[in-house]
Amino acid sequence: MNCARLTFLVLLAFFLVSCGSGSPAKKIDGFWTASLQNPDGSVAYTFMATLTQSTGSTVNVSSFGFSGPAPCFTAPLGQTATFTASGHSGGYEIGSFGMSIATALMTMQENVLTLNGIRNSDGRISGTWTLTGLSGCSGGGAYTMTAPIPL
After folding, report:
1. Smallest Cα–Cα separation from 36: which of 46, 24, 50, 49?
2. In terms of C-beta density within 10 A (0-12 exposed, 13-18 middle, 19 or more buried), how is residue 62 classed?
3. CA-based Rg of the chain, rounded to a whole angstrom?
4. pLDDT tens sequence across 51-90
5. Contact, 43 vs 68, CB < 8 A?
6. DSSP per residue, 28-49
7. Which ranges of the chain does DSSP label H, i.e. alpha helix?
8. What's the mean pLDDT in 87-106?
9. Would you say domain 24-150 falls under CATH 2.60.120?
């Protein structure tokens, strides 16, 4: 009887240690920098933003700003983002990410920059971007976002 109790306690302790020993996966919350590359490898746009996970997959975007020339993007600007965590790997929540940056909200013609990608196990977000809108405001390529200062 004592042997059974001891075995049960050892197994319970092992279970509790193995399930609770890791630190929680880092969320998407934080200050992010993005670099959008053209197909030839040149930089098309760079921007900075603070992302904060809200309810469900909604991500609040604040402190947004282009850090280089952005002739297709004049005020007013609007940004929306989504992140759907599908698990965790490498200490990070991973999953699909999407973001949209638009000008002249609520008008007939807008310039819209759309990012689609995933958050990887290294903590970075990467994927593809497309720009649609007025004449001269189109393109696409790959992008990478990094969060040097997580919240």
Report:
1. 46
2. exposed
3. 21
4. 999 989 999 999 999 998 898 998 778 899 999 999 999 9
5. yes
6. S-EEEEEEEE-TTS-EEEEEEE
7. 2-20
8. 90
9. no
